[in-house]
Amino acid sequence: MKETLAIKILSSHCKKQVKAGELVVVPVDWAITQDGTGPLAVQQMEQLGLDGVFDQKRVILFIDHSAPSPRKELSDAHRILRSFAEKTGAMLSDIGEGVCHQRLVEDFVRPADVVIGADSHTCTSGALAAFSTGMGSTDVAVGMALGKTWMKVPETIRIELEGEFSPWTYAKDLMLFIIGKIRADGATYMALEFGGPAIDSMPMSDRITLTNMAVEAGAKTGLIASDPVCREYLKEHGRGDDYQEVFPDPGAEYSRAIEIDLADIGPTVACPHRVDNICSVEKIAGKKVDQVYIGTCTNGRIDDLRVAASILKGRRVARNTRLIVVPASKRTFMQAMDEGIIRDMVEAGAVILAPGCGPCVGIHEGILGEGEVCLSTQNRNFLGRMGNTKGYIYLASPATAAFSATRGAIADPREVLS
Amino acid sequence: MISGRVWRFGDDISTDLIAPGRLFHLRTNLPELAKHVLEDADPDFPKNVRPGDIIVAGRNFGLGSSREHAPLIIKMSGISAVLAKSFARIFYRNAINIGLPLLEVDTDHIQDGIVLDIDLNKGIVTDKEKTFTLSAIPIPHFMIRILEEGGLVPYIKKYGDFCLD
Fold first, then answer.
1. pLDDT at residue A96, rounded to an integer
2. Which CATH class is domain A270-415?
3. Residue B165 domain-assigned (yes or no)
4. Which end of chain A is more exposed for a tag (fewer CB within 10 A), N or C?
């Protein structure tokens, strides 16, 4: 059988040939939760009467969504996770260490792994050719205890990418374009597999942005084959030995194939309150913004911060506009400090917050006021997402976000040099 | 057999609308969080929902975050079933895992406030006056068994493992 990436990884884990549509029980390599979903997972494990995890080195509790805690109820939720980690020996990634998905790609997940996480953006790790998918607290609680889960083997949509990005256009613009094309439920129950010559030359940070947003098209996971770029990334992170080549078979059966030439795409914006409500940046340019947020598991990596800083250096954040920057991980934060990026951003008027999810989830660190507009590099712009149903969220790339912050309005980053 | 009054919602009801991030701190206090269920989509819902009522929605119900608190507080509000044209996959799993029945069915012509009868096993939905009958996409047999046990926790407690056959 000619296998898609999803089928190849699941077949090797199930030790049998699986096919799309089949229900299977799969051993998992990683089971993870975060502070929004972890306390319920811990409670469900207690209900199960199971107090141990299947492998202490394979279960990670992340504290990233409300980190550090902005209120006492959340401080107590964090205590539940810390004490569970202490009791079971499971790993804990505490405040300041970064967003779970960024830490997973930097430090943990290996090509061909199966990952389940109680966070919808667990699909992010698919950029390392892992089958990585989001579930709820109960599914992950059972996974943490038994080291396995069940799933329906997904069909796959192949996204074939060729050509090169025009200047000031990035993977974020591409992914918003793709979601606009197939819609927010266009890949429900399916895997999105990205490939083609444009992927071969794409850096890991961009690949991670693509797989991160697979769930915004409803997908179970996003996947990219491992290759020399992936191998180099693992080596840079001290994990060269974790590399394994995993790729789909030529001639594998896809439910649909979509071909895109990167040169056809320009800077793209998703408008309130849907991720698939996209338009070109020119169409919305001039829209006043109160807040700009650069960060998250979608676009808080060093490459993202470099692009933003290159625009901010020597410019000023516009009067009456706030710029919030949150590095996705401690590693990213330190690298940005070493490169002088943080200094350039702060000089330009940015507020830098501790690595984590920042204001993306509407808990703290930048809740919108009534009628306020935020341009963010995050992955969701749902009504109420940033803590106020009377706020308006637009999504864009770090370049568009940084340039817009200096203008106080949504601005086309291609005008940076003019 | 389920019988209940319809609360009608549109397309793309996200988990942010069901259990908003601004109430993140209430996730460890579900009775309190349940007082706000779906209030950002319909402020009357949490005030007037009655045990046995049914949610009827359009496409992609439950999209977004994996927060299981969303189906949990819908269940706690007394809702007996959720019908939608389609569900986001994580929400679908979560609902079954916590024992909230749901059915994928063409909901276009179901109006707010009417009373529906639902046969979950057969996947048949009719209105009280029997003016229409709708066939739902069946829930996979394996998931029906989880639902019958009251959710994944009681299921695993009973069987000790996943039994796909």
1. 98
2. alpha beta
3. no
4. C
For residue A315, count CB atoms less than 10 angstroms from its CB and return exposed for 0-12, middle for 13-18, buried for 19 or more: middle
Residues of A in contact with B28 (CB under 8 A): 39, 73, 76-77, 80
Q: Sheet harboring A131-134: ordered strands across?
A: A91-93, A59-62, A30-33, A114-118, A131-134
CA dihedral A237, A238, A239, A245 (to 10 degrees): 70
Decide which of 3.30.70.2190, 3.30.499.10, 2.40.110.10, 3.40.50.300 is the CATH code for A19-151. Answer: 3.30.499.10
User: Measuring CA to CA, how many Å separate A365 from each of A277, A321, B75?
Assistant: 26, 15, 31
Whether residue B164 lies inside any domain: the answer is no
The range of the structural domain enclosing residue B73 comes to: 2-159
| % of chain A with per-residue pLDDT over 90 | 99
pLDDT in tens, A84-105: 999 999 999 999 999 999 999 9
Name the nearest CA neighbour of A308 among A375, A399, A175, A218.
A399
Per CB-CB distance under 8 Å, the chain B contacts of A188 are: 60, 86, 88-89
Count Cβ–Cβ pairs < 8 Å, chain A vs chain B: 143
Dump pLDDT digits (tens) for B25-84: 999 999 999 999 999 999 999 999 999 999 999 999 999 999 999 999 999 999 999 999
Asked if residue B138 is part of any domain, the answer here is yes
Tell whether B75 lies on the interface with A, counting CB pairs under 8 A: no
Asked if the interface predicted TM-score (ipTM) of this complex is over 0.90, the answer is yes
Can you read off the two tokens belonging to residue A52? 């141990």
Q: Where are the domains of chain A?
A: 19-151, 154-266, 270-415
Taking domain A154-266, whether its CATH number is 3.30.70.100 is answered by no
A176, A212, A172, A206: which is closest to A192 by C-alpha?
A212
Helix (H) or strand (E) holding A45: helix A38-48
Whether residue A244 contacts residue A112, with contact meaning beta carbons closer than 8 Å, is answered with: yes
CATH of the domain at B75: 3.20.19.10
Going by C-beta distance under 8 Å and a sequence separation of 6 or more, which residues neighbour residue B113? B5, B6, B8
- Does A134 contact B90 at a Cβ distance shorter than 8 Å? yes
Kindly determine whether residue A137 and residue B162, on different chains, have CB atoms separated by under 8 Å.
no
DSSP summary character for residue A29: S
For residue B25, give the nearest of A74, A141, A188 by CB distance. A74
Q: Which of B26, B59, B97 sits opposite A138 (nearest CB)?
A: B97
Helix (H) or strand (E) holding A228: helix A228-236
Instruction: Measure in Å the smallest separation between the Cα of B90 and chain A Cα atoms.
Output: 6
Q: A139–B17: do the CB atoms touch at under 8 Å?
A: no
Residue A294 pairs in a beta bridge with A325
Indicate the average pLDDT of chain A.
97
Phi–psi pair at B56, nearest 5 degrees: -125, 125
Distance from CA of B105 to the nearest CA of A (A): 16
Among B residues 103-132, those touching chain A with beta carbons less than 8 Å apart? none
Cβ contact, residue pair A384, B90, below 8 Å:
no
